[in-house]
Amino acid sequence: MNYEKRAVIQHQKGLHTRVAAMVVQKSHALSTTYQTTLFFRYKEQENIASNSLILLCSLKIKAGDEVWVVGHGKHAAYVVNQMVKFLESDFQFDNAQIISEVDKLLQDNAFTAEQIFNSMANGLMVSDEHDVVTIFNPAAEEILGIPANAVVGKKVYDVIPNSRLHFVNKTGIPELAYRQVIGSSSTITNRTPIIIDGQIKGAVAIFEDISALEKITGELQEVKELKGQLQLILESVQDGICVVNKEGCITYVNPAYLRILNQQYAQLVGQNIQEISPNGARCNVLSSGKQVLGTISKKKNGVAVVANVNPIIVDGEVTGVVSVVKDITEVQGLMENLNHISAKAEYLEQELWRTKKPNRAFEHFIGRSGKVFDVLAMAAKAAEGSSNVLIRGESGTGKELVAEGIHYASRQGAGPFIRVNCGAIPTNLLESELFGHEKGAFTGAIRRKLGKFELADHGTIFLDEIGEMEKSMQVKLLRVLQKKEFERVGGESTIKVNVRIIAATNQDLEKMVLNGEFREDLYYRLNVIPLLLPPLRERKEDIPILVEHFLNKVSLELTRKAKGIKNDALDILLQYKWPGNVRELENMIERLVTLTEGDFIGIEHLPTYLKEKLITKNKEGSSIVNSEIILPWEEYEKRIIKLALGTYNSYNRAGKALGLTHKTIAAKAKKYGIEKTVSW
Where is the HPr domain positioned along the sequence (predicted)? Predict the structure, then answer.
């Protein structure tokens, strides 16, 4: 049953706090006794519970105001009438128990208000009509950095100099959303006066620290600006950019992406890659979470693109992918052109190496022929690394000069260059020579001796005539090559070295390996970078240069000047086979300068054996046509081809001399079984 009735407040002070407490106490007693719920309605507001002191006080009901009492329950009419009668009374009580209950209710509500004040996240400061602070909650302490005991009971303007609470107390004009900096805190404050019965009884300030909020606002502004800049960058770059969310829908494409694919924004954004490209890189990355780089694909419009697709990972979860594409249709054409240009550049670079000494370290090796430049260019390349080098060539071709050049052109150039002639040292002494020995290791070992490998540490060791080394020593040398360590003869400690090995030989090591005379594993260890020096007969264009060099050298040594060599004598030197190579030529020039009386060397000064060999050769050539016996044409052809190849040792030069192509000369030589001696 519902029932309501109007009551007119007769008490001259209205429902102030104590009276309101009496009303709440009376309401509680009636509701409990008659099992009826009571509500109050004031003016046009909603019903409020009759047992809430705070809500009842907040209505600020004055004398003469009308209040509706609403009851719900079996005895609603009776309870409502009793409450209306009570509201219209003068609230005078003589019952000590009732007064005690009212005081307890007030005390409980005071504690409740205090708990509310202390639990507020906002700062609360209340002053009385004399500007004395009466309430200062913990949030106010934290925000302003002032303890409550230093504020409560004191004048507002004494403890907080820039506070405006006393102005509000004086003027009665509220200040809302007032921003103020107090200490290091930036606050937003609402200040309102406390007005009771038309009189200002103090003021309340509720304030909030907005320092963090202002910081976040600033950061948000920076993020907004950064987003704008990023958007501008994405719109400006020439690479196509496509962003896909975790569901596979395209959420963003930049103008470059649209241009490359020749499509419109509406055709792409909102499309699902699972439908338009189920086997593409974007689907792969979205499902696997692993980036895919450098994938090349051809689009429907014929454009070839290369794409880098990366996952977007947030908190360890793949939330999408971003694909960056480049149009490589033109690039592929440019790459083809670049390949042609690179090939030409490589050829020109090789030609430059052929016409220029690779390194000053090789300046002692005299020669300008193509074969010399080729082998020196390869030697210079070998010098850039630290791999073992095997120099092949006949005796007297300058193997030691090339080894020396490799050393001084390499990173080990500042270290020692140690020479060892393996063929000149007896086998029983070679181990001691290479690895050293300890005192007393054998008869005659009266002191410790350091070996060549130890002396060559951080440098280069040149092992000349490596083919002369016996197999027992080859095993020990192999260990040094493999592990860079050895023991002295008679010693127990292992010595580690950092040595580059350059070996040289004039023997056919491959044949020696087949015959079991040279270890195959050692051969492959040494033959990392092979260099084959051409014999002098294969670079005869260098003979005039070498002759001039040796004439100047010998003249300085003998203090005797030879001005030069006559052309007819030089022609004979050019036709000679030079089995001893450059060393033989140097010795001959030294002999000629020493024995020649005049300023120029002529045919008459040349050794007899040289002139006799030339005459014999000429006779062999003339006998082909001077013989009275008529031979078959193929026999003449065979002799002519053999003579030409024996003279020039080159299919090309022999062909030029006979007026034939080098292919024809090679075919005829193969037909007649004529071998041409070449170096490489």
Answer: 2-96
Burial class (CB in 10 A: 0-12, 13-18, 19+), 248: buried
DSSP labels for 617-652?
HHHHHHHHHH-SS---HHHHHHHHHHHHHHHH--HH
Alpha carbon distance 73, 273 (integer Å): 66
**Sequence letter at residue 558:** L
Q: Is 156 helix (H, G, I), strand (E, B) or coil?
A: helix
Global pTM value = 0.44
Task: Decide the pairing of beta strands 600-601 and 564-565.
Answer: parallel
Give me the mean pLDDT over the 660-678 stretch.
Answer: 76
Predicted confidence (pLDDT) at residue 678 exceeds the cutoff of 50: no
Query: Residue 609's closest CA among 635, 660, 572?
Result: 572
Q: Is 442 helix (H, G, I), strand (E, B) or coil?
A: coil
- The pLDDT > 90 percentage for the chain reads 16
More confident residue, 395 or 90: 395
Cα separation, 415 vs 420, whole angstroms: 16
Q: Which amino acid is at 451?
A: G
Tokens 């670049």 belong to which residue? 338
* Least confident range of 104-118, 220-234, 271-285: 104-118
Nearest Cα to Cα of residue 57 among 48, 69, 44: 48
Residue 82 has pLDDT above 70, yes or no: yes
User: For residue 463, what pLDDT is reported?
Assistant: 94
- Burial (Cβ within 10 Å: 0-12, 13-18, ≥19) of residue 366: middle
Query: Residue 259: helix, strand or coil by DSSP?
Result: helix
CA atoms within 13 A on the CB side of 348: 6
Q: Which residue has the higher pLDDT, 381 or 351?
A: 381
Q: What angle do CA 665, 670, 676 make, to 5 degrees?
A: 70
Strand locations in 246-288 (E): 250-253
